């Protein structure tokens, strides 16, 4: 069981990193100080799917980590 969880964590973290790196970059810190012309950002299509996949992979990774921590 421990080996299965190790492999699952490795696969999930690789997918999580890929999802984060594939997301479109915004204006960065410039937007925090009023440098952005864009007022509202709506995620559509693949961008929305990638956003939700990032959340799902993060929650799965967190849940497996918690399970492993308390199962021992």
> Using only CA atoms, what is the Rg?
17 Å
Number of strands: 0
Summed over residues and divided by their number, the pLDDT gives a mean of: 84
Helical content (DSSP H or I, runs of 4+): over 70%
Reported for the largest beta sheet, the result is: none
Give the termini separation.
12 Å
Structure write-up:
This protein has three helices and no strands. The longest helix is centred in the last third of the chain and has 26 residues. It has a domain of 35 residues. Helix 1 packs antiparallel against helix 3. It is elongated. With 72 residues, it is mostly helical.
Walk me through the topology.
Elements: H1 2-22, H2 29-32, H3 46-71
Characteristic terms for this protein:
single chain; 72 residues; mainly alpha; 3 helices; elongated
Briefly summarize what is shown.
The chain has helices at residues 2-22, 29-32, 46-71.
